[in-house]
Amino acid sequence: MNATGEALRQGGSIRAQLEKLSAQANTSTKEPMEAFEKKINALLGRCWRIFSAPVSQDVTLGRVNGQAGTLYSEVWQADAEPTSTQVEAMSADAAGKAPML
Fold this sequence. Notes:
The protein is mainly alpha-helical.
């Protein structure tokens, strides 16, 4: 959660910088900037400003971070042992794989 949270903060900063620079971009820099912005958006997930956008089924930093947060919230709120599904998801998260909840 810490790593994906930090990556999301840095990605958001890059998005904001690209947004400011795109207003000043000329024809030779506009296309590469738009291509880079598409890559950032694909990595981070849906734009943080569009709350009504449908959740993507693609594995993105935003989705992994949200799923990990949900998983840890479920585990820590319960007064019981984690379920086998939760243990499996935590193992996948610890191994750097996207937990699919």
